[in-house]
Amino acid sequence: MWRLLLPFIVLPFIELYLLIRIGEAVGHWWTIGLVVFTGFVGAKLAWYEGIGIYARIQQELQSGHIPTTTMLEGLVVLICGFLLITPGVITDAASLLLLLPFIRRPFVKFMQKRYKNKVHLYTGPTGFDQGDFPNPFENQQPPGEDNDDVIDLDDDDYREIK
């Protein structure tokens, strides 16, 4: 309960205080412009980073690996995107920093090490774990090749029963 006090009660008051102080220092319209600008720039940056992470996830899956680290990076980018569209100075700065890959990747590695013993992976009856897993499509023949399991019918080989 007390762990939720900081992010949901204390941090918004600090953010509001900072926005008011910045508004007094540079003007209210400049402050509003700064909030809107960081929202747009952050959303665009999160979009591009998300596209790149999605491509890396697809590539890792096709090579037969479970993309755990890449998916965690995607989660960080998603959270950063949400934080960037909310007004605030501290959350915007932290989110913009975490969107940079050379900061995000060490952060994800740190979080993996920190929570390694607190997360339990249920592998299920198949026994898959974080290592390699078999590709279910590797023995599949491409369409058009002779396949004994496929019965190819022409239009005059069947009729519809009503």
**Structure class:** mainly alpha
Shape category: elongated
Mean pLDDT: 82
- Helices, by number, come to 5
Main sheet properties: none
In what range is the share of β-strand residues?
Answer: under 5%
Radius of gyration, CA atoms, in whole angstroms? 25 Å
Low-confidence runs (pLDDT<50, min 5 residues)? Answer: none
Elements, N to C (H/E): HHHHH
Share of residues in helices: 55-70%
- Would you report the number of β strands? 0
State the end-to-end distance.
63 Å
What does this structure look like?
- The protein is mostly helical and 162 residues long.
- The chain has a domain at 16-114.
- 60% of the residues lie in helices and 0% in strands.
- It is built from five helices and no strands.
- It is elongated and about 80 Å long.
- The model has no long low-confidence stretch (mean pLDDT 82).
